[in-house]
Amino acid sequence: MADDAGLEIQLCSERFGSGAARGCRAVADGSLQWEAEERRWFSGAFTVKPRGRNGGGGGTPGTASLPLSGLQAVFLPQGFPDSVSPDYLSYQLWDSVQAFASSLSGSLATQAVLLGIGVGNAKASVSAATATWLVKDSTGMLGRIVFAWWKGSQLDCNAKQWRLFADILNDMAMFLEITAPIYPICFTLIICTSNLAKCIVSVAGGATRAALTMHQARRNNMADVAAKDSSQETLVNLAGLLVSLLMLPLVSHWPSVTLGCFFLLTALHIYANYRAVRAIVMETLNEGRLRLVLEHFLQRGEVLSPTSANQMEPLWTGFWPFLSLSLGVPLHHLVSSVLELQQLTEGHQEPYLLHWDQSRIWPEHWGATGDEVGKEGVRRWPSMPG
Known about the structure:
Elements (H helix, E strand, L loop, with lengths): L1 H5 L3 E5 L7 E5 L5 E3 L2 E5 L2 E5 L18 H9 L12 H30 L8 H26 L7 H21 L7 H30 L5 H30 L3 H25 L7 H14 L5 H7 L25 H8 L17 H4 L3 H11 L6
Antiparallel strand pairs: 1-2, 2-3, 4-5
């Protein structure tokens, strides 16, 4: 009763990450009494009761002792879910599924490559195996450089498409590795082709992962999001390694069973990747989403929301009709006289310019004349969200 009588008005309150705020009151003996801390875990909630004088049992106030809170601290960014984009959880769940399937498929492919090189064969030559390995790595290194030069500038704006492309290409590379021992005469060629594809996957996958991490980080915490993503992938790969240790002895002597398992895992891998990239809602415009927004606006007079535009966006590169769209064009390519520059900048307050070349557009496709398209495109664009 003495403590209750000594409670005064709330002195202060604190809030950690996405947890609910809790208040602090003074007790008669001069100590602080903290309210019970409420923490959210996904859609549920649980309460951590304070212990001791400061509500933390001698520890830092707000530190939960439940196992779920420990897992959240290890595998999720600090401040989750407020510190990441709304699509973070759904993407990471499907990404974990695809990583697990890819880990199992990779174990089957690695076993096939080692058998093809000669591991376990007394007649195999060490020098021949080494030469094959060096040729394979050299081919991949050259392919990595060429692909980064050829498509590097497209990996940021089309991160979802190239992420899905990279994972499908990785499945194709593993299929080549599994079938390589069946054709010993062409083994080196097949392995080199497979490693070339895997090096392309590594460039496309790494670059798009960075772009998606930048999208998910909402509190300048890109490093934290990337680190926790690496922890999640490491845990999934560890689980895949343990399952592989049980699976490989069962299928190693049965090529048909190995292929059957590989196709099942590949189907799961592609489906999980599709669901993962489809769950992402990019809030910026690339060429594909800009085309969807403009088409919808010109046809219906409405601006698509980011969620709708992302749901309508094709996830395979090359599925777009031809549209000549250039970003970051030098000004001297657009105007050649003072009059043209004045017409382009008249009434324009944005720090950028949009120019529609009416001579390169098909009015019947857009449902408007060239003049209408040009005027609407320049006038309406600054009001579009995202």
